[in-house]
Design goal:
CATH topology of the largest domain: Dihydrodipicolinate Reductase, domain 2
Strand content: 15-25%
Largest sheet: 7 strands, parallel
Number of strands: 16
Structural class: alpha/beta
CATH class of the largest domain: Alpha Beta
Shape: globular
Distance between the termini: 59 Å
Length: 443
């Protein structure tokens, strides 16, 4: 009777909890620092219990992990290492939906020595992107072919009919995670040469990608693509880029606005009685909030009535409302404003869009291109696509471990056939499926 502890009762937890709790013989505990959130996720699911648990209390996490065979963490990435250490002490396996951080990688030998598995990257991105890419990469190599170029992008976005705000974006997962990713630079491989982009240039030159049923999306580089060459078994590849999809407009705004310092993590000085417009005035260096719109426009090199300045107004940067005192940095203020304004209305659908492009040299020297596309929609007034693609992938990871289908141990990503083949098959049974097309590039 497998016992599963699910850490986190946030925006993507419902399909995960529902799927695992319906597996025959499984017992599920849902833990969150907010007990009512855990209770709400469980609802009327059988074989479930809810508990209040603070992820920073490692002793308490260890006690609960002692009662579980598998722990699934859908917490923000910064909590995973603490949960992993608790799993080591409790002799429990771990599934996460995040990349492997250096601190998590440092636990690899301990997981190996104890015969335990920390299966990371079992979500959407990372997750389905890795599963699907590795299946294609290994099939190509098994046929004698060679991958010479790899582009992969993913984005959680409003469905086209719900794309009705100036930014073309709404939140179906943790807002802070979206903006944290925007504060990092990127590294990728082009024509065999490593290229680096600093964070302030991340949005400068997005590429355009046309989807038949969506229209045009823009892609900007996502952190360190080069670091995945070894993980993806792509030694010798000439081009390697992993990216993030957004609707047009997002990149143009943040390329301009990020240079002002509105994503700074520096503490706000004298925050009491501060208004949003006052903070914007401070950031761009003007004394009077009365002229902040014009000063903001001048700072980013735009006319005061330009689309970019109107987007800043819509976001709330010129608002005279008071800033909640809990917001301690410009970054926190932006997260707050965006989360408040970029919400899904009742009945609106979100969408997950993913694309892989592989340049392939076959065994016979023929140059080919394989393009693989996933477009998945949320259910109106039901599960979001983000919740389905993240939660169900994590659930499959836990199920494969519980059934003894994965023999690997240590701290790993889902790059092995024993993981990606059954995971992709089960996702396809749930309607989450990539479509593939091939073209010959010679003549």
């Amino acid at each position: 009777m497998p016992k599963v502890l699910i850490m986190g009762a946030g925006m993507v937890s419902n399909p995960l909890v529902r799927h695992v709790s319906r597996l025959k013989g499984y017992r599920v505990t849902v833990a969150d620092q907010n007990l009512s959130a855990a209770q709400r996720v469980i609802g009327n699911q059988r074989n479930c219990r809810s508990i209040a648990l603070n992820a920073t209390d490692i002793a308490a996490v260890t006690r609960e992990a002692n009662q579980a065979d598998i722990v699934v963490s859908i917490l923000p990435p910064e909590f995973h290492v603490g949960v992993a250490k608790a799993c080591l002490d409790a002799n429990s396996h771990l599934v996460t939906t995040s990349y492997i951080s250096p601190d998590m990688e440092a636990l690899h030998e301990q997981f190996l020595q104890r015969g335990l598995l920390s299966l990371n990257g079992m979500g959407l991105d990372p997750g389905i992107d890795i599963l699907s890419a590795m299946q294609i990469i290994h099939r190509t190599q098994a046929s004698g072919g060679k991958i010479t170029g790899f582009f992969s992008a993913c984005g959680g976005l409003p469905a086209p009919e719900a794309n009705n705000n100036p930014f073309g974006y709404k939140f179906a997962w943790t807002p802070s995670g979206v903006f944290k990713a925007m504060t990092h630079g990127a590294v990728y491989l082009r024509n065999g040469e490593k290229e680096s982009i600093p964070a302030d240039q991340l949005f400068a030159n997005p590429t355009q990608h046309v989807f038949e049923e969506i229209g045009t999306l823009e892609a900007y580089p996502n952190r360190n693509s080069v670091s995945f060459i070894e993980s993806f078994d792509l030694q010798g590849v000439s081009n390697m880029l992993r990216a993030t999809f957004r609707y047009p407009g997002w990149c143009r705004f943040w390329h301009k606005a990020a240079h002002t310092g509105i994503l700074s993590l520096d503490p706000i000085a004298s925050p009491n009685s501060l208004r949003f417009v006052d903070l914007t005035s401070r950031i761009i260096g003007v004394k009077s909030s009365a002229s902040v719109r014009e000063a903001f426009a001048a700072t980013i090199g735009e006319e005061k009535d330009s689309e970019i300045v109107e987007m800043a107004k819509w976001l709330g940067l010129f608002s005279t409302d008071a800033i909640p005192t809990r917001l301690d940095s410009p970054f926190a203020v932006i997260v707050h404003l965006a989360a408040k304004r970029m919400k899904y209305a009742k009945g609106e659908r979100d969408m997950s869009a993913m694309q892989h492009v592989f340049d392939i040299e076959t065994r016979d020297g023929i140059q080919q291109r394989q393009t693989s596309i996933l477009v998945d929609y949320g259910i109106p007034n039901g599960d979001s696509s983000m919740a389905r693609t993240v939660g169900l992938t994590a659930a499959i990871g836990a199920k494969l471990i519980a059934e003894g289908k994965i023999t690997a141990r240590g701290v790993i990503l889902p790059t092995l056939p024993e993981i990606y083949n059954p995971a992709i098959e089960q996702l396809e049974d749930m309607g989450i499926k990539m479509e593939h097309r091939f073209e010959t590039l010679d003549g």
